[in-house]
Design goal:
alpha+beta, 5-stranded antiparallel sheet, SH3 type barrels
Length: 78
């Protein structure tokens, strides 16, 4: 997703597309922060260079996610 794009979180978890450095504790942390299915997520900004970290908004909260963490979040773009 690019800055300004929104989507709906489908799932937060580990699968073949998830960075190998991510683990169950990291997934649990994201879920506790509000990264849960059904929530709307908006990309606010990507870091430079390389797009890391990624600034995203869920509700009124702004989060900075490393690429490793973002790999665990599955989103359906709006």
């Amino acid at each position: 997703m690019t800055p300004g794009q929104s989507g709906t979180i489908l799932d937060v978890g580990l699968d073949d597309g998830t960075d190998r450095r991510m683990n169950e504790d990291g997934v649990r942390r994201l879920q506790e922060l509000g990264f849960v299915p059904g929530e709307t997520i908006t990309v606010v900004r990507r870091g430079f260079p390389g797009g890391d970290p990624l600034a995203v908004r869920i509700g009124s909260s702004l989060f900075a996610l490393r690429r490793v963490e973002a790999s665990a979040v599955r989103v359906l773009r709006s």
